[in-house]
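Entry 14. Ran structure prediction on the chain below.
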Amino acid sequence: MEYRYIAFDQEGQRVEGWIDVPDEAAAERILWERGLTVAQLVPARQELRLWRLFPTFFGVKRRDLIIFSRQLATLLTSGISILPALRLLAEQSTSKPLREILGEVAEAVERGQSFSAALAAHPYAFPPLYTRTLAIGERTGNLEEVLRRLATYLEQAQELSRKLREALAYPVFVLAVAIFVVVLMLTVALPPMVQLFENFGADLPWTTRALIAFTRWTTAYGLYVLFGALALTIGLAWWGTRPSGRRVRDAVMLRLPLIGQVVLEGQIARFARTAATLIRAGLPLSEVMELAVSTAGNTVVAEALERVRIALLTGQGLSGPLAAEPLFPPLLAQMTRVGEESGTLEENLETVADFYEEGVDRKMRLLVSFVEPALTIFVGLIVGFIALSMVMPMYSVLSSIR
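Output, structure tokens:
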């Protein structure tokens, strides 16, 4: 929701603007973090937009954010100042949500707000990692380079997600086709055959009797089963949004054979890539760990990183606390220790990210190589069982006709 605010900075200067946040408490917290004293905060009247109501589905896509980052870096390098560059990109953007947001950001910058603070008012489009890294780039005068690094980071994360989607596409397709074929045979092909068998009084084998019993049971109770499954799915989905449910789900994912290793290595790659990008941008290590915890996609991993962050704040460094966490492999702590001692921490973390991203890609291909034939065999057994159950009684029918 968008709020209009009037506030005063630390020098007593009046500051006005808009901020797009989930609720009023979030708006007050963000403004306080910017060093502003809020005098007035009221909801702004705005017409409904699908991308505002459902930012995950209709909001700014990662690809749009990558293009925006690279284009803005190019414009700034060519000597164009930030305000005309924002207005130019707003006019040329093919993404309607990004076009509207950039227009609002340009207005905020024109009113005297910093570029990173104006972006932070739209957290659904520009995540905290993005805006806080840009704030460091503004302070160090290295905004163009930070934008390019962020674009590279987002591209690498998008590439990893793409590989995972492509690896799962074929198994999901095979499973969907199998379900469709089974449903079609049970609902279209089987009922007329059953009627034929009953009319001729055919002697049915146990496979056919079991299939008929299953079909009749699903016909009688299928609706209840469907609603029950739907209710269970909704209940589990709701529970999965709660902290306890999310933790159980994430812990189970890490314990699954092969899949758990893929998930863990993917999380380690994300942490290493994020940390390397933020360290290169100039963020202090404590803030790097804070952002790494907030961007972790697994609750168990986030808890482990939070313990590392707390140990870091007590002066224990980074490699020691990482080595003390049994969840993380020794390679991560060893490479981090070498980076701390040699002053090349970001390079070593990038090497770790590359290593584990390649490992995730390799393990995903291996997993798919197991899943594809297993699914094919499973589908063949199910379809073969149904087909055999329908064909075998035909011999009994032919015998009765003769």
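The domain at 1-46 is CATH 3.10.20 (Ubiquitin-like (UB roll)). Will compare against last week's run tomorrow.
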